[in-house]
Amino acid sequence: MTIWLLALPVLVAVSAGLATLLRRHREVALKAVIGANVLVLAVATVVIVAASSSGGEAATDATLVAAQTDSGSSSWAALLGAAIAVAGSSIGAAIAVAYTGAAALAAMSERPELFGRAMVIVGLAEGIAIYGLIIAVILIGRA
């Protein structure tokens, strides 16, 4: 956790520098961002390959049995799935509410009697987030 707190000022400085570079030299900044993304992807691939190749030889039978009986070893996947479900559905609901809300306001400005119908449509768009929350509760319950 402390590594993230230490890296936060660096991320802020890099973001500010990138914003300045984007204002002045858009093409150079775009190439820098693409290069940084390729570098992060390469490092992540190397780390994943190294972790997956060294994990199999170092484990003994006793550690494998202990890892299989430990309930906390697989709960991280359920929690990660719950986080992804909530985040994805919330982002999707936000986009849907933004579009339907804008359209509902435009329609109500011309015909105020459409308020009830417009709110139903906006409520249906918000239901996407509730579905993600239900999936998250189910996943956390199984963890």
Detail the topology: elements first, then pairings.
Elements: H1 2-24, H2 26-58, H3 61-69, H4 72-110, H5 115-142
What is the mean predicted local confidence, pLDDT? 80
- How far is the N terminus from the C terminus? 23 Å
Radius of gyration: 23 Å
Binned strand content: under 5%
Keywords summarizing the entry:
single chain; 143 residues; 92% helix; mainly alpha
Structure description:
- The chain has 143 residues and is mostly helical.
- It has helices at 2-24, 26-58, 61-69, 72-110, 115-142.
- α1 packs antiparallel against α2 (26-58).
- The radius of gyration is 23 Å and the shape is flat.
- The model is unreliable at 58-62 (pLDDT under 50).
Brief overview, please?
The protein has helices spanning 2-24, 26-58, 61-69, 72-110, 115-142. With 143 residues, the chain is mainly alpha-helical.
